[in-house]
Each structure stands twice: as C-alpha cells, then as structure tokens.
Design a protein that fits this description.
190 residues; alpha/beta; six-stranded mixed β-sheet; 25% helix; binds 1-O-pyrophosphono-5-O-phosphono-alpha-D-ribofuranose
C-alpha cells in the first residue's frame, strides 16, 4: 500500500488502489474528451459529498485535453449514517444556476441501488439540459434496484460496503486516497 495514514489500520482489504483510480480517471477523461469533441463547454455536476475527490481529479484530467469545464455542486442524501440505502432522497444543496441548454455530466462516486441517480437524472432533465450523462467511479452491479443509464463507469465492484476516496462511514475515511473495505471490528466499536 503506497499511502500511510491513520486509516490503514482499519482497512481489511483494498478494493482499488490510488494508482488504479488515477489511471482510470485519465482513461475516462480521454474517452469523454473524444465523445464531447463537438461541444464548446461541459458543465460538471458533482454530487456531494462522496464525489468531491473524483470531481477534483476528473475535472483536472478533463481540463488538460478537453473543452472548458464549469463546476456545479449538489448535495443529496440517501444513506444517513448506516451502511445500506434507504431509498429516501433529499436535496441538501441545489444547483446555483440555470442549466437549460447545457451539456451536463453528473460526477458520482458510487452507484449502489441507483435510487439517487435515478432521481437526479429526472431532476436534471426537468431543468432542460441539452444533454445529461453520468460518469461514476464505482458501481455495484449486484446492488442495483432501479435501472439507470450510466455511460461512463470506472469500476464495477462487489456488493460490499466500501470507504475511501470520498466515500465515508459515519463521515470518516473520506480522505483516503484509495478504496477499501473496513474491518468488522470498526463497526463493533461504533
Ligand atoms: C452515496 C453516494 C451516492 C449514493 C449512491 O451518497 O455518494 O450519491 O450514496 O447510492 P444509491 O445508488 O443507493 O442511491 P450518500 O447519500 O452516502 O452521501 P455522501 O456522498 O454525502 O456520503
């Protein structure tokens, strides 16, 4: 493991390394630059808080090769403090500006049940974006409850609760540069 942080001791096993994440981001950015060659600018919509790391790295990768990008942030909540989806989606922070006529790419850290994204896509379409696509770093195919169209996916992962690279357990572990599974003892001590 390349990194050395307080959190390493709590990790049972690593799912995706820092190097794998960064290589995948470069690959996704290259693909999106090619697909969006015809547009003059892209509006990235980051879904806080989990997607913050991915947004920061992905927007910079895109910026090195693509058209200008603008960054917008939304915060919605579906999990609470537990480890499984509730299906309840609340807007905690809305978009700051009109997205009508804009080419929007939603930047998500993880698609679990798909409930958050399904709701979000309906919402963004209702605000008359010219196009709406999704780039998600992680997806759990075995956890999906509603079908969602995701054009760009970094990694399909097993249906385990993962933390790191923006993903939290009770607001901890977001600062990890890699994605891993917590030791059972961590839950026992909460
Ligand atoms: C996580 C994640 C996605 C959503 C995915 O957010 O960032 O937005 O859950 O789950 P779903 O596919 O089952 O809907 P969370 O609500 O944990 O908030 P956070 O990003 O602030 O941690």
């Amino acid at each position: 493991m390349a990194s050395q942080g307080w959190y390493d001791a709590d990790i049972d096993h690593v799912i995706i390394t820092e190097e794998q994440i960064q290589a995948k981001i470069a690959e996704l950015a290259k693909q999106i630059v090619a697909d969006y060659a015809h547009v003059d600018r892209i509006l990235l919509v980051c879904v806080l808080k989990g997607a913050l790391m991915f947004m920061a790295d992905f927007s910079r990768a895109l910026g090195q090769q693509g058209p200008p990008v603008e960054l917008e942030f939304m915060a919605v909540s579906s999990y609470g403090q537990g480890t499984s989806s509730s299906g309840v989606v609340r807007i905690l922070k809305d978009l700051d500006r009109d997205i009508a006529g804009r080419h929007v790419i939603v930047v998500e850290d993880i698609i679990d049940s798909g409930l958050t994204l399904s709701w979000l896509l309906r919402y963004l379409h209702s605000r008359n974006a010219a196009s709406v696509e999704v780039v998600a770093l992680l997806r759990k195919p075995d956890a999906i409850k509603v079908p969602v169209t995701v054009r760009y996916v970094g990694f399909d992962i097993p249906n385990e609760f993962v933390v790191g690279y923006g993903l939290d357990y009770a607001e901890h572990y977001r600062e990890m540069p890699y994605v891993g599974v917590l030791k059972a003892a961590v839950y026992a001590r909460e």
